[in-house]
Specification:
Rossmann fold, 7-stranded mixed beta sheet, two-stranded antiparallel sheet, 7 helices, binds S-adenosylmethionine
Length: 251
């Protein structure tokens, strides 16, 4: 039999546990939402405002851009601007491309599951991550060693372990893994590197900015049809130059 004091003691304990529970619930409900929720909302807004309302209609592209956390590919001081439609500095005089241009290139490339894709100009690794949402065979080459290392670790930290990043000049492509279904060059040159055309599969597509590297260029789409390389121009863009062999520097 419990005496009166025992009842009171148990009652107090029950009350204390109840209070702790209520306090925990309150703390849970009033804690500010974690960063990733906030960035998720900003990312969806970016997709609707800057892509859907323009001419980006390709669903896999829109889905991939709604998933990849662009802020994780820029220095933390630019996180606030990561979901506005503009290029941003990533160090070493280079930039991460404007989201609309990334989406436009993806839409014209039309990457399908299982296809092998080569990117020349890894930069931050963002476009490689977007590509990796569409296929598990992404090969990317970056000419600045520090950026190759940084992008490799950004991609790995987000679980994109299938993207292979190589430090080197992408002008000559990546013979070891050629031929590719799709090739994307994210830096500008006054011509399309011949080795890249050679490493494109029959029926494959290549996209890159071609023109005056000091001004604007034409976003150019090339398709290999029955051995012939046919090109068409999409729009005017402005990219950083493809350096190395494209500028006549041969190691
Ligand atoms: N796709 C990148 C991203 O998502 O951040 C943006 C690329 S940035 C506009 C162009 C990149 O191409 C730079 O990082 C630059 O160092 C690289 N690049 C320039 N010439 C290159 C070359 N010959 N081979 C490989 N990368 C090159």
């Amino acid at each position: 039999m419990l005496d009166l004091w025992e009842y009171l003691r148990l009652g107090r304990m029950f009350f204390a546990v109840l209070l702790l529970g209520v306090a925990g619930m309150l703390a849970f409900c009033t804690t500010p939402k974690p960063d990733h929720d906030l960035f998720h909302e900003l990312r969806i807004q970016m997709v609707e405002r800057d892509l859907v309302t323009r001419d980006i209609t390709d669903v896999p592209t829109l889905r991939a851009m709604a998933v990849v956390p662009r802020h994780r590919f820029v220095p933390q001081q630019y996180w606030d601007a990561a979901y506005s439609d503009q290029p941003l500095p990533i160090g070493y005089g280079q930039t991460i491309s404007q989201p609309y241009v990334v989406a436009l290139m993806m839409q014209h490339l039309g990457v399908e599951h299982g296809e092998k894709v080569l990117e020349v100009g890894t930069g931050s690794g963002y476009q490689a991550a977007v590509l990796a949402e569409l296929t598990d065979q992404v090969y990317s080459i970056e000419i600045i060693e520090e950026l190759a290392n940084l992008s490799r670790s950004s991609l790995a930290s987000l679980g994109h372990t299938t993207v292979l990043v190589k430090y080197g000049d992408g002008y000559k492509g990546w013979d070891e893994f050629a031929p590719f279904d799709k090739i994307i060059v994210t830096a500008a040159a006054d011509h399309i590197p011949v080795p890249l055309i050679e490493q494109l599969k029959e029926g494959g597509r290549l996209i890159m900015p071609v023109g005056d590297t000091n001004r604007s260029q034409n976003l150019t789409l090339g398709e290999k049809i029955r051995g012939e390389f046919r090109i068409s121009q999409i729009s005017s863009v402005r990219f950083v130059p493809l350096t190395g062999e494209a500028e006549g520097q041969v190691k």
